[in-house]
Amino acid sequence: MLFNSIQFVFFLPVVIILYYNLPQRWRNIMLLVASYYFYMCWKPEYIILILFSTLVDYYVGIRMEELREQKSKKKYLLLSLACNLGVLFAFKYFNFFNESFHAVFNHFNLFYDVPVFNVLLPVGISFYTFQTLSYSIDIYRGQQKAERNFSIFALYVSFFPQLVAGPIERSAHLLPQFRHEHEFKQENIFSGLKQIVWGFFKKLVVADRVAIYVDMVYNNPGYHNGTSLGVATVLFAFQIYCDFSGYSDIAIGSARLMGINLMENFKRPYFSKSLKEFWTRWHISLSTWFKDYVYIPLGGNRVLRWRWYYNLLLVFGLSGLWHGANWTFVLWGIWHGGVLICSDLTKNYRAKFKQILNLNGFNNFKQIGQVAITFITVCIGWVLFRSNSIGDAVIIFKKLLSSFGPVFLEGEAKIHLIYALCALSVLLLIESKKELFPDKSWPIIGGNSFFNQLSYAFLLLFIVLFGVVDGGQFIYFQF
Amino acid sequence: MGLLEIFKKNYVVMNIEKKKTVEKLIKFFLILCVLDFVTGGVYQELFFRQKSGKFSRATYVLEKSHEDIFVFGSSNAVQHYVPDIFNKELEFSFYNAGSLGQGILYAKAVEDAILKRHKPKAIVLNIDQKMLHQDKEIFSRLTMLRPYYTRHQEIQPYLELTSKFERIKQFSKLYAFNSTILHVLRYTIFPQKDFAGYVPKFGIVNDQVIGRPMNDQRWQKEMPSLDDRNVKALDQFIADALKNNIKVAVVISPLHKEATFFDETSMQAITSILQKYKVPLWDYSRDSRFLTTKEYFNDLYHLNDNGARVFSEIIAQRLKQECLNNNTEIAVIN
Fold it and tell me: Cβ contact (<8 Å) for A465 and B177?
């Protein structure tokens, strides 16, 4: 079931009403049934994969807790890793590696004939796999106690608001919330609903509208000039942000209606002043996952410099691969890792350069410049991320540097671009206010409950009038 | 204080909070409904007052048209049939009911709306070779009919193909006008001259565009398959016209270059339906008068005003001789 579907508009209130009218012992069962129903609306048979993952990690968790020796625990951890990553590999990466091997073998005129595994990618598999893995690893490390109540554990794996596109929650944060009885609080209902409405605005009014123009240009890069490709790239930056953070907002808001707090996943990343800061604001649940379970175990930055750089490239490369089975995603990850390495290598030179320029009195300009440079760096990465193939990415980069001309405005493109720019203006206004003046309330709306309600009613009508109401699914569903 | 008392107190407090929340939510919902009703009503007035543009043409065709001959189809219809020429050559009134980017489902919906209140003498259906293939875009473009959903029952089944919850969504008055505001503002502030549905193009295709291949890249990548709903709509379109003693001609417009189609199933299905009803197919896609004649084309697929006038003369003459001649026999469906 999609958040931006009419089914969800009926599904969510029913779940919330049931939730607050059931005794605590039935609430989790009801949420589990609702979560499985939510997932099965898409492709019922793939619930087997979630059940498999749930059973394996439930068993592994209890067994690891019972064992004292770390060596014995490791066997169970390996079992969990093999099962979860095995399923992920089979469904998401098998064909990718198979095709890559095929291309390499073909290049050397060698026979290679492993058939393609013809199967649809299960929605959200990367998200729930990582969530269950973090549970097993935490138990192995002794940081988490095994959950013995099966329904609570199953709910932790499949909690519907964050099941298919995150935030990827940690067991230490989410599991206790299922054990705790949440009282009905008006504050949760209203703050949750407000976040849901804001999420819908981002998704339907900004992301889906921008997507129409971006698709027109990016699906045919050969026909467009560098200016149009540049505009499409900047728009894609906002499309992917609004698509994914919009989903996160709806997920966090939906969970809050039940008194459950999910972690914040985005903190206005395009206001970052460096790439390092960007990764503390973008897809926080995934970046902290990679930091805690891959980067730090590899030694993080407390190793020799070359090894640290290797760690960065590996972690970002893996993060790219997590996003999709395509070399474009791997290159996107490597680009981010590479820029972080370059920024470390040039740290001293940049400090000297700043001293020479003596920009101390121009802090605002300096910050704007830093934000702009970071945004451009991120946009270069988005070219790789959005391109349909590496070949397309090469064409786009070449054109971005050489082929200038009028922006593509043929046919319906012009209309969609104007809609997109209007929506982006509203988004930037609201996000800038949140970033720059977080403590100040909006004039009139902020202080008066009636005007506040009225503003949200208008926002909803704005979504109905300007949103792409029959748009597609969320981009991150494919990851 | 005993546990039971604490529970009772909490329960009462919680109920008050629940009640207050429900009251607030109902109040908010009412505000939303009133705002939707008021803004939707005002917007509706503005929408149906448009004097030009695609919605104005659609409103005219669906609600007021009374012409003798109509042409249906997509951009090829809109840009290739000049009503003045048909009026002059045939001495019948003519309206171009084509709509950019639309397929046979749109044409069928509009035909149903017209037939409900008026019986034209002839219908020209401009098609292309891929018309019956599956195409998601066709369904998203059908949403152009949303503003007419509550006004025309006959178009409801077609619009419901775009979403099975269309009826529920239409409870919102504003929803029907989703994504139309820029169009409405543009044509309300800067109305354009209307040529009875015809939208002329005045440019001449440039050499860079001529150099591009004709084959549609998209169809090359995805193997197309027939969409049963399109097949059924074409069949029904012709059957309903013939049932009402309306003469039908099906036309394929000229192209600048010969195109290669990777899949002939759509064309085969079209031919078999036309044969079933003995309806003529006038194929101008390889007509030597147009092929490679740059002066007649705005791009590889669309004629400019010069080309459209030449083409309209040809079709008008042929309609006169083969369809509107009193001696011509037409198939009749019982």
Answer: yes
